[in-house]
């Protein structure tokens, strides 16, 4: 009779199962409901505490305070200016904004004149602040240059908390309106509750 081949040797498992049940598994297998309740309560407390200590992702930390956005400067276009244009419209020729009185809110300074068919009529320079109510037009709170002074304004700016401008004018009524013969470099600073003007006049060359 042919020989029956011997069965191949079986590989012994490298990890032998433990003969005794694990203590942790045994405890969970036979735990009473009261034990599960205590375990769940303790786990919930740990999760809640971890949420309080976790930076950023837990959502329980306070949101950092953000700096307030700066206030918008008053809009020059909609203000009512003390100009007598005899029914003609007025024009805002120049504008600039900055905090002039140190209260943290910007003011707007506008150079305005009446619109004429030819030539450039004299300008007024006005300081504007925001309206008293939200959405209200800006208000004129100071007149730095009145149109009656017959001045033209060039090199206009607001910087370092002051208004700076070059004023062109006339030494007498005999000077043609096309050719002003006076020039002033002037500035206005807020001091003692009012705008104080400083400047230097100079004659314009021919």
Report what the structure shows.
This protein has 206 residues and is α+β, with helices and mostly antiparallel strands. It has two helices and eight strands; from the N terminus they run ααββββββββ. Helices cover 14% and strands 32% of the residues. It has a four-stranded antiparallel sheet with strand order 1-2-3-4, with no helix packed on it. The longest helix is centred in the N-terminal third of the chain and has 21 residues, at 33-53.
List the helices and strands and how they pair.
Blueprint: H1 23-29, H2 33-53, E1 90-98, E2 107-114, E3 124-129, E4 139-145, E5 152-159, E6 162-169, E7 182-191, E8 194-203
Antiparallel strand pairs: 1-2, 2-3, 3-4, 5-6, 6-7, 7-8
């Amino acid at each position: 009779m042919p020989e029956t081949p011997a069965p191949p040797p079986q590989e012994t498992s490298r990890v032998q199962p433990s003969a005794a049940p694990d203590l942790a598994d045994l405890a969970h297998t036979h735990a009473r409901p009261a034990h599960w309740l205590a375990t769940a309560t303790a786990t919930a407390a740990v999760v809640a505490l971890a949420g309080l200590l976790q930076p950023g992702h837990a959502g329980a930390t306070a949101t950092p305070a953000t700096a307030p956005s700066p206030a918008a400067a008053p809009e020059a276009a909609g203000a009512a200016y003390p100009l007598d244009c005899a029914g003609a419209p007025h024009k805002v020729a120049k504008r600039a904004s900055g905090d002039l009185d140190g209260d943290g809110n910007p003011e707007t300074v506008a150079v305005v004149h009446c619109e004429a068919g030819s030539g450039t009529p004299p300008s007024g320079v006005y300081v504007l602040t925001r309206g008293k109510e939200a959405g209200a037009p800006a208000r004129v709170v100071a007149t730095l240059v009145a149109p009656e002074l017959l001045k033209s304004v060039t090199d206009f700016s607001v910087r370092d908390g002051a208004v700076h401008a070059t004023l062109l004018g006339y030494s007498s009524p005999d000077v043609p309106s096309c050719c002003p013969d006076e020039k002033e470099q002037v500035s206005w600073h807020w001091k003692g509750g009012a705008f104080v003007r400083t400047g230097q006049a100079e004659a314009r060359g021919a």
